[in-house]
Structure formats: structure tokens, C-alpha cells
Amino acid sequence: MLAAVPRPRALFGALLCLFFSLVSSAQAPMNATASANKHLVIIGASYAAEWENPKLPGYTVTNKGIGGQESSDLLARFDRDVIALKPDTVMIWGHYNDVVRAKPENMAAAKKKAQDNYRSMVEQARAAGIVPILVTELTIPIPDTIKEKLMGLVASVLGKNDYRTQKNTEIKALNVWLRDYAKAQKIQLVDLETALDSGNGTRKVEYTRSDNSHVSPAGYEAITKYVVAQLG
User: Fold this and answer.
1) Which whole-number Å values give the CA distances from 143 to 37, 150, 172, 190, 202, in the listed order?
2) How far is residue 101's CA from residue 109's CA, in Å, rounded to a whole number?
3) Where is average pLDDT lowest: 138-152, 174-188, 203-217?
4) What is the pLDDT of residues 65-82, one digit of tens each?
5) What's the 3-state SS for the chain?
6) How many domains are there within the chain?
């Protein structure tokens, strides 16, 4: 007796069910990965703002950087721009403006204020169940050229300090404190000062725009690559 041949309509229905089953199976891992992404908020000044929304595997990024701000400004809006969003993680980046705007006679107070602001933001984040990540600040580039070395030598003979050297000294001092604080508090640290260093203790020139301050596209590429490795 011959086996029954499936009717065309029944065969089509079976194939359609098989197709949708395969599509559903293929999409499941992608949907699961997307839903597993952690929400990361970046808060800072212009360096953070111009990083925009970097592609960090495993994270959905919200950038809350605002140009021109100091750490006190970050603290003032921390509840609105971080706590209210209920992210998993917050990356806190920004004491550059605290240092470059402070007069020499006010520098010690400015650095202490920045330290207090960092502590307050970390405490607020942890109280809300948000994991903080701290970021060391970028230095001002000083090209490693003969001209720069001669200018530095002349300045030292005349008893003068280069503006960039003065500010870098204070930026790096706060970075040292930030590293020690992060270690003591068991907080992850993203060490951008070290990652973008030229080898002479300052930021690579190619990582800086023509204003000798803001980060160039190459700089942001280097930052993203480094941060991806750290978060990974």
C-alpha cells in the first residue's frame, strides 16, 4: 500500500511553522544579550560630553557630560542626572576645570573641594545601589621637542614655571589622591592619565585638538579602546 502524500496546504503549513521556529531560535540569543546590557551613565565636563555615547560592549551608555563644569557642578546635578535614571553604573570624570580655574593661592582649597565632591558622589551612588567608576583626569600636552626643552630650561633659569607644568602638577596630584581613594574604597578606576601619556608625563599631542586642551578624535578612539579593555 502506498504511503499517503501530504496535501499541499498541510505541507505549506508545516514548513511555515518550521520557518518561524528557526527565526525565533536565531533571535533569542541576540535579544537575551541586549536585555543583559547594563546601563552606564557618564557624568563630567566637556571631555566627557564630547565622548558622546561610546560603544562599550555589555553596556547601554547615557552621556550626561556638560562643558565647562567643575566637580561641584557635577555634584549639584548628580541626583537629577544620575540617581533619577537608576543606572547600574556611573562613570565620574572631571576635576580638570577645578584645577585650571583655581588661582595659586586657592589651589589647595580647590583640590580639597574636588576630593569632597568625589566622596559625596560615590556615597550617593552606593546608597542608591549604583556602582561607581572613577576616572583620572587628562594632563595638558607638552610636546617633547628641543624647542620646548630649551624654553623650559630658560624658564627655570629665570625662576619661572610654565603654566602647563604648574597645572599638570596639580592635576596629577589629584589623580594620585583619586587612585589611593579608589583603592581604599575598592572602586574601579579608569586611569586615563596613564592610558594617554606620551612618555614624558603629559598627554600625547595627537590626542589633543588645536586648542591644546580638548580631546581629538584619535584621543577618543584611544580612550574607548582602553575603557573597553578595562570594563571587559
Assistant:
1) 40, 12, 17, 24, 8
2) 12
3) 138-152
4) 999 999 999 999 999 999
5) CCCCCCCHHHHHHHHHHHHHHHHHHHHHHHHHHHHHCEEEEEEECHHHHCCCCCCCCCEEEEEEECCCCCHHHHHHCHHHHCHHHCCCEEEEECCHHHHHCCCHHHHHHHHHHHHHHHHHHHHHHHHCCCEEEEECCCCCCCCCCHHHHHHHHHHHHCCCCCHHHHHHHHHHHHHHHHHHHHHHHCCEEECHHHHCECCCCCECHHHECCCCCCECHHHHHHHHHHHHHHHC
6) 1
As a whole-number percent, the residues of the chain with pLDDT over 90 amount to 75
In a domain, 1, yes or no: no
- Sign of the Cα torsion 183, 185, 186, 192 reads negative
CB of 203 closer than 8 Å to CB of 177? no
**Number of neighbours of residue 23 by Cβ within 10 angstroms:** 10
Res. 20: pLDDT tops 60? no
Q: Is 138 inside any structural domain?
A: yes
Flag whether the pTM goes above 0.85.
Answer: no
Is residue 67, in this structure, part of any structural domain at all? yes
Nearest to 229 by CA among 203, 205, 194, 201: 194
> Is 224 contained in some domain?
yes
- At 50, which CATH number? 3.40.50.1110
Note down the domain range covering 164: 39-231
For residue 217, report the phi and psi dihedrals to the nearest 5 degrees. Answer: -55, -40
Tens digits of residue pLDDT in 102-128 = 999 999 999 999 999 999 999 999 999
